[in-house]
Write a structure and sequence with these properties.
Protein name: Biotin/lipoyl attachment domain-containing protein
Organism: Megalodesulfovibrio gigas (strain ATCC 19364 / DSM 1382 / NCIMB 9332 / VKM B-1759) (Desulfovibrio gigas)
Order of helices and strands: HEEEEEEEEHEEHEEEEEEH
Helix content: 10-25%
Number of domains: 2
Structural class: alpha+beta
Strand content: 35-45%
Largest sheet: 4 strands, antiparallel
CATH class of the largest domain: Mainly Beta
CATH superfamily of the largest domain: RNA polymerase II/Efflux pump adaptor protein, barrel-sandwich hybrid domain
Radius of gyration: 21 Å
Strand order of the largest sheet: 1-8-6-3
Length: about 220
């Protein structure tokens, strides 16, 4: 049985994640007027249409491209000693300390409490039409899954194949993939809550909402 109290205390002791920003391609790097300690912002807006804070610019073949913050947080390191030099793809150029929100903490704990059904291959995944209609009408928790249920359609290299659920019977408590986006092999598609664990899961949600103090 998952010890929610111990896990929540562990996260409280280190309530952030550090995100390394890597050069996406080769080029000459330059930096704006920004220094470690500054607050930076990730993409904003309803559709994340407003880009994050510019952390650096990579110029390749006279074509400058900004590198922006993917998360909101504190800029803890910036590779200013590399300014004006040529860097390879994958070179670390910045680090952001992102403080976890209530929603993020809740998801961390739920991923340990739920049974995660993972993608067998890198592909696009869709619920079968019957399941999709039920989710659109009443939400994912209206769907009970069981061993062998044909739950997904996997679309890969212009071919489609059914994917059956493997795991304990329960309701779909969380959906982790998005429509028409590739999912890497091993990444979770859904989180399933067996009936006997529903009280534990609801306790997780309540505990996080009442106890977690957001920072940053």
């Amino acid at each position: 049985m998952l010890d929610v109290t111990a896990l929540l205390e562990e996260i409280k002791a280190s309530p952030f994640e550090e995100v390394d920003i890597l050069a996406p391609h080769t080029g000459v790097v330059s930096f704006p007027d920004i220094a470690p300690g500054a607050k930076v912002h990730g993409p904003r807006g309803t559709w994340k249409e407003v880009p994050g804070t510019t952390l650096a610019t990579l110029e390749r073949e006279r074509n400058p491209k900004p590198i922006v913050a993917p998360q909101t947080g504190d800029l803890v390191w910036l590779a200013t000693d590399m300014a004006g030099t040529f860097v390879e793809a994958g070179t670390p150029i910045a680090r952001i300390r992102h403080y976890l929100s209530k929603e993020e903490v809740q998801q961390i704990i739920l991923k340990q409490a739920l049974h995660l059904f993972r993608a067998p291959d890198r592909a696009k995944y869709y619920f079968t039409p019957e399941v999709d209609l039920k989710i659109k009408a009443s939400g994912p928790r209206s769907v009970t899954v069981y061993e062998g249920l044909e739950l997904f359609i996997m679309s890969r290299m212009k071919r489609e194949a059914p994917v059956s659920y493997q795991g304990p019977e329960g309701v779909i408590y969380a959906v982790y993939f998005q429509h028409n986006q590739n999912v890497d092999a091993g990444e979770p598609l859904v989180g399933v809550c067996p009936p006997e664990q529903l009280t534990l899961i609801e306790d997780v949600v309540v505990r996080v909402q009442t106890e977690w103090q957001e920072q940053g």
